[in-house]
Design goal:
about 200 residues
């Protein structure tokens, strides 16, 4: 493989791995710190069977459900990755004022995605509404960016934007799925602990 392709491959790997390291560290720190927020959810009861009414206590949470943790981790990773990508795009396109507004919008969405991941792990009562708003803003930002890239440079320039846009939409859908499946846990009252 020629040297320029090796250099490009090394840059791509660094761009992908650096956010992975930073986001994993941030996720572990936030998840460990706020794990107690999930252990204070009152144990629910499950009524079993159509013919027998038996109340079975549900085991209380030790930490956030797996889907919520996965959504939070992708929020942290994708926020770092998007922020890096938007900074590079902003430097390259700094002579075009309209595109600078798109870059600024992308940076704001990346920051909001980071906050959504933190709210998920903290079991913030506003996480459901905030997460849905961030998912909608993400999809709007991605659609407008991909449309601009295709209009300005054809499918060659828009291809990468479409691929990254698809991954971004997948991450937003994961957040919405976690909120849909476990949304009631974010508003559940905390269990009173014995003194």
């Amino acid at each position: 493989m020629p040297a320029p392709f090796q250099m490009i491959g090394a840059i791509v790997m660094a761009v992908a791995l650096l956010p992975l390291t930073a986001s994993t560290f941030a996720y572990a720190l936030v998840e460990q710190r706020h794990r107690g927020a999930w252990t204070h959810i009152p144990a629910a009861t499950h009524l079993g069977g159509p013919y027998r009414r038996v109340e079975l206590p549900v085991v209380p949470f030790q930490r956030a459900p797996l889907l919520v943790r996965a959504a939070a981790l992708t929020c942290f990773y994708w926020a770092w990755f998007s922020l890096g990508a938007w900074v590079v795009v902003g430097v390259v396109l700094r002579g075009f004022p309209v595109l600078e507004l798109v870059v600024l919008g992308g940076v704001l969405v990346a920051g909001s995605t980071w906050r959504a991941g933190g709210k998920l792990l903290r079991r913030d009562a506003r996480a459901v509404a905030f997460g849905r708003r961030v998912a909608i803003a993400t999809i709007v930002c991605v659609a407008s960016t991909a449309a601009l890239a295709v209009l300005m440079g054809g499918i060659d320039a828009g291809g990468l934007a479409l691929v990254l846009g698809g991954l971004t939409i997948g991450q937003a859908v994961l957040v919405v799925a976690a909120l849909r499946r476990h949304g009631d846990l974010f508003t559940a009252p905390a269990r009173q602990l014995a003194a």
